[in-house]
Amino acid sequence: MMSAQTYDLIIIGGGSGGVGAAIAAARAGLKTLLVEEQPWLGGTSTSGGVNTWEMGVGGTGIPFEIYLRLKKIPEAVGVYSAGRHFAWQKDGFFWPHQLDRCIFPGGENVIDPQRRYIDTLRRHPGPDQKPGEAFSREFWHGVPFEPGAFHQVVMEMLNETGNCEVRLLTRLESVQTVAGEVKNVCLSDGRTESARFFIDSTANGILCHEAGCEQLTGIDPKIRFGEPSAPEVASPAVNAATLIFRVSPSDSELIEPLPDGIPEVIWWAKNPVCAAVTHYPNGDRNINMLPTMEGAEYMRLGEKAAYAECKRRVYCHWHFLQTYFPEFRRYRFTWIAPVMGVRETWRTVCEKMLTENDINIGLSGQSDVDLITIADHPLDRHGANGGCPEVREPYGVPFRCLIPKGMRNLLIACRGAGFSSIAASSCRLSRTMIQLGQASGTAVALALKTGCALPDVPPAALRDRLREQHVQLDWPLPTALREYIEERERQVSPGEI
User: Domain-by-domain residue ranges, the chain?
Assistant: First the structure.
């Protein structure tokens, strides 16, 4: 075993939360180690193929900086507007029983050169507006990007700090914890590393699990958090999973042959599965089957077997699209995500648990003094327990949702943080995770400077630091922050490299 090296901060997991945490901490001067088991940084938003930031409040700070750098690379990033949608047909909704009359096999997002980043910073309809086609076309704009370019940009940002070491293709093996503090971590490269502070950004909360933190999975019963939509009895169900694939334009028209052993008929669902189809700036399409697998089945099969089965379903789904929607015959299957797009597995019990009640009362009703990011994504579940009710206003995520209960030097910044299952269905998008990471890295810097434990970081000081970093903590978007975003984007010429 190699000798230990001491860091100020070790971050396990280089997904969206880990990226935000590493950039914030390294910029603050902390000697930082970022560990990621995949060959790319970005997690689900790169290796998982979910390389689109959906619309929503709170996507300022580090996400906006990443966007500006991506914009300098030809065809690396764009802003989309809503295209066709099978629910918006003027002469009726025919899915799935009259496929020949459907205008599109789901929803479509099309690159819109007239839109800017500022247009992507809202999702909720508000009290005076109705969700629907008109509202969606006006206000719902997201950010599709090339995953390789995202990794490149983030590595550049980390390297510029001179304070962050990145180890890819490296996993956490074990953890030593004493009296509520993590002392060191043993990694798959054979090294044991120690640090003053640690952040878990593994999505599944692997570091927290190894440290002995309490974790939850499945749908919480009503008695646990008093949520109005919760069932009376706990359920093992988790949000469904997706395996995303990519297709590229072709000069010829063809229905591609199925691989050997793949049936032509969809076998895993009663009806044909719809898809969210997002256009890349270069003309390719990202196809997100909604969903590919129920969450309970994913948990039962395990990662390796679930991926193998979902890969079979992807080929069948692509054959279905080409068969019933001729426009797809002028595309060729070119890429399949190397990992599943998983929306929910394990959640860690933290000093504060964000619940449906917090989301329902929103910013105007929350009394928490430690809100460190805001969001407005709906309560969005896929699969058998599906539903997508919009929120009426943005809500905030307290810093205490990132502090595993009883821990002094450990934070969790990922979709497995302190959320109920219902709240996690809303508070799980990539830009929100980056902001959780940015808050975590900033909090560690404050704790190191003042000599306090993480639960004792002053909320007001943390919020002040985040506002200095252009993080949105208020709704409506403050005028000064709006002007900053608009001016910064005007200064960037697309495709400079």
Answer: 6-64+147-232+344-489, 241-342
| Chain centre distance of CA 436 | 11
Q: What is the spatial distance between Cα 338 and Cα 43, in angstroms, rounded to a whole number? A: 11
Helix (H) or strand (E) holding 301: helix 295-301
Percent of the chain at pLDDT exceeding 70: 98
pLDDT tens profile 307-347: 999 999 999 999 999 999 999 999 999 999 999 999 999 99
Report which residue type is found at 259.
P
The span from the CA of 381 to the CA of 219, in Å, is 11
| pLDDT interval class at 91 (50, 70, 90) | confident
Q: The tokens 């971590």 sit on which residue?
A: 185
Strands of 1-152, DSSP E? 6-12, 32-35, 52-53, 80-85, 106-111, 143-144
Distance of CA 346 to the CA centre of its chain: 15
Q: Is the pLDDT of residue 439 over 70?
A: yes
Residue 264: how many other CB atoms lie within 10 Å: 10
pLDDT for position 497: 42
Model confidence, pTM? 0.97
What is the C-alpha to C-alpha distance for residues 302 and 318, in angstroms, rounded to an integer? 24
Nearest CA among 64, 14, 58, 8 for reference residue 39? 14
Helix (H, G, I), strand (E, B) or coil at 287: strand
CA–CA gap between residue 245 and residue 267 (Å, rounded): 19
On the question of pLDDT at 3 being above 60, the answer is no
The architecture of the domain spanning 6-64+147-232+344-489 is 3-Layer(bba) Sandwich (3.50)
Those residues with Cβ within 8 angstroms of residue 460's Cβ, 6 or more apart along the chain or in another chain? 369
The stretch 297-303 carries a mean pLDDT of 95
| DSSP symbol at 477 | P
Residues 187, 15: Cα–Cα separation, whole Å? 17
C-alpha–C-alpha distance, residues 194 and 183, integer Å: 6
